[in-house]
Design a protein that fits this description.
Layout (H helix, E strand, L loop, with lengths): L8 E3 L10 H12 L6 H6 L2 H12 L11 H12 L4 E8 H11 L4 E5 L8 H11 L4 E4 L5 H6 L2 E5 L3 H10 L2 E5 L6 H7 L13 H5 L6 H28 L1 H5 L16 H22 L1 H19 L7 H21 L5 H29 L14 H23 L2 H6 L6 H20 L7 H7 L1 H19 L7
Parallel strand pairs: 1-2, 1-4, 2-3, 4-5, 5-6
Length: 482
């Protein structure tokens, strides 16, 4: 149906114009500003909903230019605007947010929003609409809470509503326009939990492999439980990290498509799932051992420090990443009760420092290609590549040197039947690490380097080849004279 051009089209904000919830995002920004602000929230709630929003708006603001918007709805609003139709914004969000959105979109003729102790939701919103324009209006909303307003309107615009709500609206009022949303399915949730990043936690199996204990069923099962525990805990931290980084991710050419940044997954749903899997992670950790629980706690503390503070400091962030990778190997050792050699720890620190620098250099190369000179939320500039590049390659070569020294120590000579075969592993490391750095220089490193190495066929062949040589060197006695 086509409504008269003089009938105002009144549009809701949260969940309708933008699929996100600006109040929840404001609370996250408030806590990010200072975790102590969590203690203020209960006191502000005593002021009522409007007073609560006033207090939050006084401390933080939302960047309207970074918010995700429903483009099909914006296209429809622009079309109606071109017909000369009045477009209003009516929202329970604070007026400061509504005005920023209106300024950014340059679409709205009037703004109705929460302010001065008056929360504009439900019947209060309907009353404000009638006071400003009478009973002749069309309302665009998204949820069951909008039913009283739709029932009082001349027509409805349905935006991503559930089938049940849509049916209720259609029984009482004509539908002028309808915009369907793709419902967030399991794939979106799995993407938010970054299940593909669980591959990093395969590092917990390294002590099992280097001790050649993988045929001991009890240790293998224990390591699998430890792997699942770390993976669930990691997914919970990824959710928190993504929420902490909403603005930075939205400004990033690739990360803006993440589930929370794009608002394809509601923030509160993500937090609920993160809480549940964190409980599961600790349940599995207690099933492994008390020592492993402490390792999991250490991992969560260090990851939180990285996400909240340390990742903003140049070089500190890559050192922390290398430490977190090494911590996974230590956790695997604790899980099965096998001591980690100092050689393995030294090798791990250098190789993971190199991989962390690959990740950072890949981001800077991507920014350079897009014409951007600095990262948002991190203290890195494209010009830093001249320092980071040799530092990363140097760390890779240091890892190879440590491995070469390890081949000739008495411990290795006693453990391996043919230790000299390990020199083929050293050459494999040189090739593999150099390949990663070449891919980075070409701008082809779009994933975390550990994930990329597992997905990349050349890397997989090289890594499996090195593992095969290690197994042969351990079990097979060959007469090699050097």
């Amino acid at each position: 149906m086509i409504t008269a051009t003089n009938t105002p089209l009144v549009v809701d904000l949260d969940g309708t114009l933008t699929p996100t919830d600006t109040l929840v995002e404001s609370i996250i920004k408030l806590v990010k500003q200072s975790p102590l602000n969590l203690l203020r929230l209960p006191m502000w709630l005593l002021r009522g909903r409007a007073g609560f929003k006033d207090a939050i708006a006084a401390h933080v603001s939302i960047d309207a230019g970074l918010l995700p918007y429903r483009e099909p709805l914006l296209d429809y609003l622009r079309q109606e605007k071109s017909r000369g139709r009045p477009i209003w914004l009516a929202t329970a969000a604070h007026r400061s947010i509504a005005e920023d959105v209106a300024t950014h979109l340059n679409l709205f003729d009037r703004i109705l929003a929460t302010e001065a102790g008056h929360n504009l939701k439900g019947q209060a919103k309907l009353q404000a609409i009638r006071q400003n324009g009478g009973d002749a209006f069309v309302y665009a909303g998204d949820s069951r809470a909008d039913l009283p307003i739709w029932q009082a309107a001349q027509a409805a615009v349905l935006v991503g509503v559930s089938p049940g709500v849509a049916e209720q609206v259609k029984r009482t009022v004509p539908v002028e326009h309808e915009i369907h949303d793709k419902r967030a399915g399991p794939a979106v949730l799995l993407k938010a939990l970054r299940v593909h990043q669980w591959l990093k936690n395969l590092l917990l199996f390294v002590p099992l492999l280097t001790a050649f204990s993988f045929l001991e069923i009890d240790k293998l099962v224990t390591t699998i439980l430890a792997f699942l525990s770390f993976s669930f805990a990691a997914s919970a931290t990824y959710v928190v990290n993504d929420l902490w980084d909403l603005d930075n991710d939205r400004a990033h050419p690739r990360k803006r498509h993440r589930p929370f940044a794009s608002a394809n997954l509601p923030i509160l749903h993500g937090l609920a799932v993160a809480g549940a899997i964190l409980v599961l992670a600790f349940a599995l950790a207690f099933a492994v051992s008390q020592g492993f629980v402490l390792m999991l706690l250490a991992y969560l503390v260090l990851t939180s420090l990285y996400s909240l503070v340390l990742k903003e400091y140049v070089l500190i962030d890559v050192l922390m990443l290398s430490l977190l990778y090494t911590l996974r190997i230590l956790a695997g050792s604790v899980a099965i009760g096998i001591a980690t050699s100092s050689w393995l720890l030294a090798f791990s620190v250098f190789i993971f420092l190199s991989l962390a620098l690959v990740k950072r250099c890949a981001e800077l190369v991507s920014l350079e290609q897009s014409g951007t000179q600095s990262t948002r939320g991190r203290d890195y500039r494209v010009g830093d590549l001249v320092v980071l590049w040799p530092l990363g390659v140097g760390a890779a070569l240091a890892a190879v040197v440590v491995f070469g020294l390890f081949i000739n120590v008495p411990e290795t000579q006693a453990r391996y039947a043919t230790p000299h075969l390990l020199w083929f592993v050293a050459f494999g490391l040189i090739y593999w690490l150099a390949r990663l750095w070449i891919k980075t220089s070409r701008g082809e490193m779009h994933d975390d380097p550990v994930i990329y190495a597992i997905k990349d066929r050349g890397s997989r062949v090289t890594v499996f080849g090195m593992i095969a040589v290690m197994l042969i060197a351990h079990f097979l006695k060959l007469d090699i004279a050097l």
